[in-house]
Please model this.
Amino acid sequence: MSTQSHRLPLLEKIGYSLGDAAANLVWRGALAFLAVFYTDTYGLETLAVAALLLIVRLSDGVTDIIMGMVADRTHTRWGKFRPWVLFSAPLLGIFMALTFTTPDLGPTGKLVYAYVTYICLTLAYTMNNVPYSALMGVMTPSNTERTNLSSWRFAGAFLGGFLVMVGTPILVNVFGQGDEQQGYQYTMYLFSVLLVILLFATFQSTKERVGAPSTQTTSKKTDWVKFSINMLLAAVPLISATLFFYFRNLTTGLIFITVVGLSAIFIKRLIRKPESNKSDAEKDIVDLLTNIPWVILLGIGFLFMMFNGIKIGAAAYYFKHYVGDGVSIGQMISWWPTSLLNIEGKEAFLSFYFASLLTISVVAALLTGFLVKLIGKKPLFIITLLLGAILTSLIYLTGPNDLGMLFGLGVASEFFAAIMPVLFFAMLGDSADYSEWKNKRRATGLVFSAGTFINKTGGGFAGALIVIVLAAYGYVGTDESTIALALPALKSLMSWIPGVFAFAAAGLMVLYPLNDKKMLKIESELIARRKSS
Model:
C-alpha cells in the first residue's frame, strides 16, 4: 500500500493540532508563569516552590506510564485514545483555574492548597495528554505522515502557547487592575473555557486507524498486580533523584548511586526472566527497556526539555529583574508602522518577547516536514540542538538595554528549539513501529507516555533548578534588596546553563540507530504483516 493512501485530510490535521493548542494553555502557562506566580504573587518561599515543582512533576511522571498502560487497554466504540481526550477536558479546565487561585489561608494552608491543586492539575493533564500524544501513533501507519502530523501538532501547540504566554501578562493587568492575584484567577478562567472547546474539536475531527496485534496472554488482574509492583519499584529511583537534586549532599548522593545500582540489577533480572513467566505488562515494560531507539530518545527528551524549560522559565524573572526600563518596544523596532507597540514597562517586553518566540516557533514547526525530507530526522535533530545551544549561550553577552541583540538571539535560537519536540514525538512513533516490528507487540500509549513523562520530569527539574540557582544567590521574590545579588544567576539561566543541556543532547543523538532508510523498510514490512494477519 502506498504512502499516498495513508495521507490524512487537512481538516483532521488541523483538528488534531487544536488538542495541543489546548494542552499548551496549561503547559506553557504552568511552565512559564507558575514559578514566578508562586514566589512573587502567591507568596511561597523560594525553596518551598523548588520542592513543590520537582516533587509533583516527578511523581506525575510515574502516572504518565500508568496512563499509557491504561490507554493501551481501553476499548470503546470511539477507540483507545480519543475518549480520554474528551472526558478529561473539563477536569483540566477546572484545575487550571484553581491552581492559579490564591485562597485566603495562612502560609501552611496555602502550601497545602498549592500541592493539592497542582497535583490535580498534573493528573488531569496526564489523563488528557498521554492519550492525545499516543493518538498520533494510530492515526496513520506512515512514518512520513506522522512527521507532518507532528508539525501540525506543534504549530497548534505554539499557537496555544502564544495565547497564554503573550496574553497572560496583559490579561493579568487588565483583569487585576493592580491586584495580581485576581488578575491571574480571571485570566485562567478564560483560558480554561477555551481549552475545553478546543479539546472537543479534536475529539470530533480525528480517527484511529492503526490497530495493535492481539497479544493478551495473562488475566487483567495478574497483569495489573505485577505492573503496580513494577511501578512502585520504578518510583524509588525518582524519589532518590529528587532527594539528591534538592539537598545535594553526600548522604543523598550515596543513596541515589545505591538505588540506581539496585535498579539496574532489577531491570537485568526482569529482562532475563523467562518469557512464559512474564505478565503482559511486564512484556510491555521489557519491550521498552530493550528498545534502544526509545531509550536514547528518553535521554534526549529529558535534556532538550531541560534546555527549553530553563530558558523559558527563567525569562519571566529575567525580564522582570534584569532587563532595563529605559527602552520602549516601539523604539526597539522603529520600522513598526504604528505606535501600537510604543509601550513602556517590562511586562510589555516579556509579552513581545514571548510573541516573537512563538511566532517563529509556528513557522519552524510547519517547516520541519520539508527540512526532514531535505536533511533527514537524525541529522536535522543534531543540527538544531547544536545551533540552539550556541545561539542561546550567546545571550550571556547581552546587557540590560541590549534588547535588539536579546530578541535577535532569542528568536534565532527558538527557531531551532521549536523543531526539537516535532522531531521527538515523530521519532517516538518510529520507536513504536520498531518495537512492533521487532517484538510483534505494540504498546503505543506506553511508548508515547515517555513523551509526556519526560516533559514533566524535565520541566520539573528545569523549574526546580531555576529557583535553586536563584536561592543560591540569595533571591527572595518579595524582597527587593536581594534582586541585585541574583543578577548573575539570571544571566546564566537565560544563556549558557540551558545551552549545556542542548550540547549534551546533540552528543547523545549521534548514537540513535534509526535512519530514514531503516524506517521505510520497517514501515513497508509492518504494512504487509498487518494485511496478512
Observations:
- DSSP finds 19 helices and no strands in the chain.
- The domain at 3-207+279-532 is CATH 1.20.1250.20 (Growth Hormone; Chain: A;).
- The CA atoms of residues 36 and 405 lie 25 Å apart.
